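Summary for the funding panel

The consortium committed to producing paired sequence-structure records for every protein in the target list. Below we show the first two records in order, beginning with the earlier of the two.
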Amino acid sequence: QVQLVESGGGLVQPGGSLILSCAASGRIFSVNVMRWYRQTPGKQRELVASITSGGSTNYADSVKGRFTISRDNAKNTVYLQMNSLKPEDTAVYYCNIQAGRIYWGQGTQVTVFS
């Protein structure tokens, strides 16, 4: 059984910063790609950022230059540093890991308000 536990969401004003973390535990032998998605009501889940086991990263155009994804392989943890937050970044953020199969976190709410 694999569990993903997310933390770090909350309320922040525009221009502020938050860091999300997602720790995987359980029967994990190797983790390949780790990703962050986000979703707002009535919309499809959107891929925000991804990072491979080798450290290669990709970002959605809407967050390039503002968000940074990183990982700690020893801790099976992925992070999302979010800077210069905008109201349109408001969403529930989900982590996702590929470890034999795909696992999802429970989601954490990020609200950017003025």
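The next record, for a separate protein in the list, is shown here:
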Amino acid sequence: VQLQASGGGLVQTGGSLRLSCAASGGTFSGYIVGWFRQAPGKEREFVSAFRWSGSTTRYADSVKGRFTVSRDIAKNTLYLQMNFLKPEDTAVYYCKSVRGVTSSWGQGTLVTVSS
């Protein structure tokens, strides 16, 4: 599948954004779909992972209680609802799909949280 991430933008501290990761050329069935982020000058880091078949989710400790993953099966889209955003959440956010040895990255979407 090909992935299209969107929804980034500029928000103030404490604000919210919802990112979307839409699949095309297939469905997310059987995939694990993850969110990662890369802040300026830092390595890409894990944010969350969602098992499409089973709906289980994992979150990085840094976002637990603030970020929530949801999905729209009909739209083959995974969402990342980000609440109570902090300046340290500023990063380019990427979605990634994995099934077996097959993986795909979407293009990033920039989230900037101003203090």
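Regarding this second record: Residues 16 and 83 are 4 Å apart (CA to CA). The mean pLDDT is 96.
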